[in-house]
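Worked example 2:
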Amino acid sequence: MHPIPKFILTILLSLSFGLVVSQNSTTHSTYVDDKGVIRWTLDDSEVHGFGINYSTPFAHAYRMASRLGVSHRDAMRDDIYHFARLDFNLYRVHVWDTEISDTLGNLLQNDHLDLFDYAVFEMKKRGMKFVITPIAYWGNGWPEPDSKTPGFSYKYGKAGCLTHPEAIKAQENYLFQFLSHVNPYTGLSYKDDPDVIAFEVSNEPHHPGTVEEVTAFINRLVAAMRNTGSQTPIFYNVTHSTHLYRAYLEADVQGGTFQWYPTGLVANRQINGNFLPHVSEYYIPFANDPDFKNMAKLVYEFDAADAGGNYIYPAMARSFREAGMQVATHFDYDAMFLAPYNTNYGTHYMSLPYAPQKALSLKISSAVFHEIPRFSDYGGFPTNNTFENFRVDYENNLAELISDSRFFYSNHTRSAPQNSSELQEIAGYGNSPLVQYDGKGAYFLDKIDDGVWRLEVMPDAHWLGDPYARVSPDRQVAAVHYTNRHMRIDLPDLGSDFSNRAINKGNAYQTSVQDGAFDIMPGIYILQAAGSRKQINPEMTYKNIRLNEFVAPEANLNVTLVKKMSSDEFIAGKPATIRFEVICPQRPARVMVSMFGESGSRQLEAQYKGADIYEVVVPEYATGHGMLNYFIILDFGDYQKTFPAGDRGMPFDWDFYNRKPYTIQFFPASEPISLWCAHNDRDEIMMPWNRQINTRPAFEKGKANLFYDLDQVPYSQDSSGRTHIHTFKYFFGSQVKGRAEELNHKEYLVVRGRSLNGENVKLDISLTDKSGNVFSYPLTLNGEDEIYKIPISSHSDGQFAMIPRPYPEFKPWYAGIVNHDTFSGEDLETLQVTLKDDESYDEDKGVRFYLKEIWVE
């Protein structure tokens, strides 16, 4: 690492603390008008932008590329191609200042800075713009321990950087040098680069002090940036230390930056449920302040962290636009080489090759930001699930865009454009009325000319495990696989008798088309209608890509897995289907299910349903009250593998020793249905962490209690400030789906628990359905009874608690929605238990009680 030479540093410092560098006024491409709108200088039109955060030049991603022997530049070029396919036109990054500065704030010319410059250069080729945050304040370790770095942030830490005089001087110096730095690949300094539409001073400062002190701090750093001559709009984070929001409004900045993590962060597992109520509105507590209304607004980070569904992103984009946000960048796109392990930020997961449905959802979100006006109003949830040309659907895990020219969908859909002859672009996953595909990767269809389309097919993506669980480079969570799949396309512009020609490098695959249907392998193809004479050069440019460009990982599926998709509980005497996914490098010749139980044994061949899904119907005689065990056998011809063990051999071979089977329990319709059990379900609870709430073993074997041993009702930060309230949620939808229809016939909600200090405890027990309706049951625990039976019909309309708690912390505790459907037992899927403060609680005794189990009967 080499600091800037001393004689240059002297000149720069003199400029920083007195002179203003002259600048050609044409270099800044954007400005903020007096109504708080970012506009293009060229024509005064409103700026629209949507994209990603991405960190390969820095920190963990940089180190992992080095360890794996991956070229950083090649990796970035590959990812940037995917950005183009997903319609990302904006890049934001909090630069790891700790890796490119010294303790005095001098800019270091090193590999990190060079790679950042190169990334900007490559993104500019694709037409991308930039929001740059020069100061991150973070160490460079996550998820590893921080390493010793040369920068001022390492020396002073975030807290010190916000208050220490020498640290503030270092930041002034650094900001001046960073903005003045000339990117050797573009020949432009960042202060003069017209593709930089905004600077954000720093990442997520947590300010102490007074409004006046914080405003003065911000103004010093802004002055250092302005002393470079830059006229680019400067923004400051307004979602942290919001009690000081006046400091931000009074500072010399043109806008505020916002984040949104509506499902919390770092659950260390995938969380489930309908989170659309969480994103129905982007609430800003100071939205009506006149000074705020004149500020520009951008989103620097957002994600529905730990939520594996792909339906939610366009809803977040809609709410951002309704709140007046002009541009937004998702956090964080995973580099293709690192995505199989998701070690960069394990609470997030975004990758076109490895998470295609989530990536398509972001592509749709880009369209939201470019198409719907700021401050639109689409009503509340669930009315706002459909808005303009967009629709989000939790139950079908689907987001879609349908317009005259574009048709995008993130999952199987029955929707279709009204006039498909006008279409110019399709991007999808699975089946639609226009494209049927039994593969598991994304595909893109782009109209090049009349009767000529470019087809891009990505390899199959497989999640081998929970990508949000604890991370390790030794734990592969996703893989891609190349296999022959079937596709059918029904477009009037192509007809049913079109040709299909592979054009990407190394792709010699040949296929014939019959009635619009053909076999296909991943790659790039030109589809040309019969009779079309158009000559297509594979090297020609289309929008911001080359026709024959194809970027995808090499196949890395090296395991054979079976993922069970059906319930472990069914109603006795009713039809039951065992459904599962087979993930393996080679499709088995046959898949068998070997069943055995009180009714005898039988082996049946499973039926292939497409996309690696198999099903077998349990014989009626085997569905009686009792247990049914079964094995899944994959027959590859010369050998077999048996699951759940995953070992070679047949389950009843003499030397097959790992004989633990899958088990289904068949319950009589009259039996109770467990919704939550402290012992079995303790790791799946969603709630704000509190050291005085924990699970403890009970006297009964196999039982435990969730103990609340509280000095007072916990407080949480929300839109009203400090609120004394605590809620836990538990998603039971998956475990009861085989018996869901019987929920319609249950009469009582039963709670097992007890107060422990002689004081009554008031709880709200609520059941939430798939559509977000909340049915509430008030309950008072005493110190004598342990079992409480509440008539299910006695429910009242409840409130939807936003658990996990979101960031920013000023979001309300409850989503502002009301019930819109009548009670339907079979649609219930989430338990919600809320403890509120009550004047009757004795402060000396605290609040002490336990919950053991909740069921319906």
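Residues 165-180 form the longest helix (16 residues). The CA atoms of residues 590 and 635 lie 5 Å apart.
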